[in-house]
Design goal:
The protein is α/β, with parallel strands linked by helices. The chain contains 11 helices and 12 strands. The termini are far apart.
Length: about 300
C-alpha cells in the first residue's frame, strides 16, 4: 500500500516537472528570421529613351503626296520624310502604321501609334485631343471633278442650296468645313474612310466633287486623273489652313519639345524646302519658325481658315 502510494506520488512529481519544463519552453523567446520587404519605386522611362530603344510608330493614311506606300512598297511622302528626318536626328528608327483617317487620333491616344505626321489641319477642337508641333506647311482646298467640270463647281457655296454632293475623308478638314462652316447636310457631304473611295465616288457619279488639298488634287490630275476623266475645278474659292503639324500625346510634352526643336532646325536649314520640292509641293507654302501652333490652337472662332492662322 505504501509502495503504491509512493509510485503515485513519484508519478505526479514527474508529471509536474514535465509540465514546468513545457511551460518554460513556451515562455522562452524564440528567434525568428525576419525577411524585410524592399519596395522599389517604378521610374518612368523618358519617351526619347524609350523610342531610341524600341523605335517609333508613325500613323498614316494612304494619301499621296503626304504619306503613302509607293509602288516599291516603301513608306514615303513629304510628311513622312520630314518626320523620318526629325527622328533620325534624335536617334530614332520609325515604322509606318496604316490606319483609317478617323482612327488616327484614337490610335495615338490609345498607344497604337506614337505620332501623326500626315496632312492634319491644326484646329482648336483637335488641339484638345492631341499636342501639335509648330506647323511647317499651309494648304488650300481644291475640288476634284469630272473632266471639264460639267457642274460648274467653283466653291463650297455651290453645295449649300442645291442637290450637289461632295465627298471627303471622314474626319478631314475638307469635310468638317463643308458640314460645320457651310452647313451642308451629311447626306450631301459624304465621308469615306479611304482616299481611293472618294475618287471612285467622283468617277462613278455618286459625288459631284471630291474635296482635298490643292496639292493633292493637282498632282493626282497630272499623274492619273486625266486618264480617268477627272480634273481640278479652277477657279475654286476655299479657305486655307495649316496642316502637317505633327501630333503627339499630351502626356509626352518633354518629347514634343525635343521634336519641335529639331523641326525648327529643319526649317532654318532649308531641309523642309528641299523635301517639299522633292515631293512636288510649292516651297511658297512652307512656313518659317515665326509660325507656331498656338496661333492655330488658341481660339475657336474659325480663324484656322485663314492663311497663317491669324485674324483676317
Amino acid at each position: 500500500m505504501i509502495n503504491g502510494m509512493f509510485r503515485v506520488r513519484v508519478a505526479l512529481a514527474l508529471g509536474l516537472v514535465l509540465v514546468g519544463l513545457l511551460a518554460l519552453a513556451c515562455t522562452r523567446e524564440v528567434e525568428v528570421e525576419v525577411v524585410k520587404e524592399v519596395v522599389v519605386e517604378a521610374t518612368a522611362v523618358p519617351a526619347l529613351a524609350r523610342y531610341q530603344a524600341g523605335g517609333m510608330n508613325l500613323g498614316f493614311v494612304q494619301e499621296a503626296p503626304y504619306g503613302y506606300i509607293n509602288d516599291a512598297g516603301e513608306c514615303t511622302g513629304l510628311d513622312i520624310d520630314v518626320a523620318r528626318e526629325v527622328a533620325s536626328r534624335l536617334g530614332i528608327e520609325v515604322q509606318c502604321v496604316h490606319l483609317a483617317w478617323e482612327g488616327l487620333i484614337p490610335g495615338l491616344q490609345g498607344g497604337r501609334i506614337d505620332s501623326i505626321p500626315v496632312g492634319m489641319a491644326i484646329r482648336p477642337s483637335r488641339c484638345e485631343a492631341v499636342l501639335f508641333s509648330d506647323p511647317y506647311q499651309a494648304q488650300g482646298i481644291a475640288a476634284l471633278v469630272l473632266e471639264g467640270n460639267p457642274k460648274g463647281i467653283t466653291s463650297y457655296d455651290d453645295f449649300v442650296d442645291s442637290d450637289l454632293i461632295l465627298a471627303g475623308s471622314l474626319g478631314a478638314s475638307e469635310l468638317i468645313i463643308a458640314r460645320e462652316d457651310f452647313g451642308i447636310p451629311s447626306e450631301r457631304a459624304i465621308g469615306f474612310a479611304e482616299q481611293v473611295q472618294v475618287i471612285e465616288a467622283v468617277k462613278t457619279g455618286r459625288a459631284d466633287a471630291g474635296m482635298y488639298t490643292a496639292n493633292f488634287v493637282q498632282r493626282y490630275v497630272d499623274e492619273k486623273g486625266k486618264e480617268e476623266g477627272l480634273d481640278i475645278a479652277i477657279p475654286f474659292q476655299s479657305p486655307s489652313y495649316f496642316n502637317s503639324g505633327h501630333a503627339f500625346r499630351h502626356d509626352e510634352k518633354e518629347f514634343y519639345d525635343q521634336w519641335n526643336a529639331i523641326l525648327a532646325d529643319l526649317k532654318t536649314e532649308g531641309v523642309i524646302d528641299e523635301l517639299a520640292a522633292k515631293h512636288g509641293f510649292p516651297v511658297s507654302l512652307m512656313l518659317g519658325t515665326s509660325v507656331q501652333q498656338n496661333n492655330c490652337c488658341g481660339f475657336d472662332d474659325g480663324r484656322e481658315a485663314n492663311f497663317g492662322c491669324e485674324p483676317s
